[in-house]
Amino acid sequence: MELVREFTLHVTIGEGVPVGGGPFGTRSVGTVADGTVRGERINGQVVGPSADWALFGTDGYAEIDVRLQVRTDDGASLYVRYTGSLHATGEMMTALRGPGATEYGATYWCTHVRVESGAEQYQWVNRTLFVGEGRVVPDGVEYAVYRLA
Question: Residues 64, 87: contact at Cβ < 8 Å?
Fold first, then answer.
């Protein structure tokens, strides 16, 4: 098996909605204000409602649960959902509150990415497995997304 870099997802974080503590941890919803996808085969803009329904546990990790839509440069629509685990270290959370940045691998921030499309030219994404790693960038967050080949 080989990991092949498929695209970079860059999102600008919008309004945060703290839900608070519950039986499974502390829930916080972070909206996505804007974003882009850039790669050899997929390029486009994040459109419509998008957010991360993150659940922070007492162990310092957060469960990531993001859903967003992408309108590709050639007019197709993609649904992107990724779930994963993020070690919410003090340094990472400070950078996230901005302005700040982290590097890939600075903390455990790994995702399973699912991409769906009804467009003929993107049928291949429906049966492709993707994984990603995240980092904080000065104006939001960025994911390097790889396909398993």
Answer: no
Taking residues 58-74, report their average pLDDT: 97
- Asked if residue 141 lies in contact with residue 109, where contact means CB atoms within 8 angstroms, the answer is no
Whether 118 is in a domain gets the answer: yes
Domain hosting residue 32, numbered range: 13-139
- The DSSP bridge pattern shows strands 43-56 and 25-39 to be antiparallel
8 A C-beta contact, residue 133 and residue 107? no
Global pTM reads 0.94
* CATH number of the domain enclosing 61: 2.40.160.20
Looking at the chain, the whole-number percentage of residues with pLDDT higher than 90 is 91
Any domain includes 149: no
148 domain-assigned:
no
C-alpha distances in angstroms, 58 versus 55, 66, 73, 85, 88? 10, 21, 41, 13, 11
**Is position 95 within any domain?**
yes
* Confidence check: pLDDT of 45 > 90: yes
